[in-house]
Amino acid sequence: MNKMLKGLFMISTVSLLHVETLAAEPNFCLFPTKAVLETLTCIETESADCAYAGYAPDFIKRHNGELVTVNMSGPEYWRGAFAVADFDLDVNHVRRAGLKAVSLRYVETVSLVTGQRFQQHEHALVTVDKDCKIIEWDQYGDNKEQLAVDQAVLTYLNAVGAVQSDLVQ
Question: What's the pLDDT tens digit per position in 26-37?
Answer without folding.
Answer: 688 999 999 999
